[in-house]
Write a structure and sequence with these properties.
Order of helices and strands: HHHHHHHEHHEH
Number of domains: 1
Number of helices: 10
Strand content: under 5%
Number of strands: 2
CATH topology: Endonuclease III, domain 1
Oligomer: single chain
CATH architecture: Orthogonal Bundle
Shape: globular
CATH superfamily: Hypothetical protein, domain 2
Distance between the termini: 19 Å
Length: 191
């Protein structure tokens, strides 16, 4: 069974993430918020580091409930910075709390963050059909546009590369390579 070349086949955590989650269209706001937090935390680190800390993040960030996270005060932020089960970087932690507030604003304006994000692609995944890992860009004009809009709304740690990783993770963009079994499953095999 062929998989994307970035998946280390000897790492069950990566294999499970690739096979079960990455690129699958998400329509749940908590999952969108989870990936916003995790993608921001990953900046400068390996995705494996974040996958290993994912359960810690779920606990520390109240199951990624943006309403709860938006209400975190300075004492809660200090407790998070002492929590070894997450990445203890003040900018990343405080941006997650601020992003929760902005996330709620987007929900108020668009009904859901999901409606906001999928509205950029008229509700249909972008199936790129790349042949090799080297063909996949780090960012795209779509990611630049969404990044600019999110920054204009006050979000932080949402540069074009982070936004593109989010789009890939939640299936707005399907960047499984065409030789990967998941690309075939997610597109029905059509090119």
């Amino acid at each position: 069974m062929g998989r994307c070349a970035w998946v280390p086949l000897d790492d069950p955590l990566y294999v499970a993430y690739h096979d079960q989650e990455w690129g699958v269209p998400v329509h749940d706001d908590r999952t969108h918020f989870e990936f916003l937090v995790l993608e921001g935390a990953q900046a400068g680190l390996s995705w494996r580091t974040i996958l290993l800390k994912r359960d810690g993040y779920r606990r520390a960030f109240s199951g990624f409930d943006p309403r709860v996270v938006a209400a975190y005060d300075e004492a809660r932020i200090e407790a998070l910075l002492a929590d070894a089960s997450i990445v203890r970087n003040r900018l990343k932690v405080t941006s997650s709390v601020e992003n929760a507030k902005r996330f709620l604003e987007v929900q108020g304006e668009f009904r859901s963050f999901d409606d906001y994000l999928w509205g950029w692609v008229e509700g249909a995944p972008v199936n790129n059909g790349f042949r090799t890992l080297e063909d996949i860009p780090a960012s795209t004009p779509l990611a630049h546009s969404i990044s600019k809009d999110l920054k204009g709304r006050g979000f932080r740690f949402v540069g074009p590369t982070i936004v593109y990783a989010h789009l890939q993770a939640v299936g707005v963009v399907n960047d499984h390579t065409v030789d990967c079994f998941r690309w075939k499953e997610l597109t029905g095999g059509a090119r």
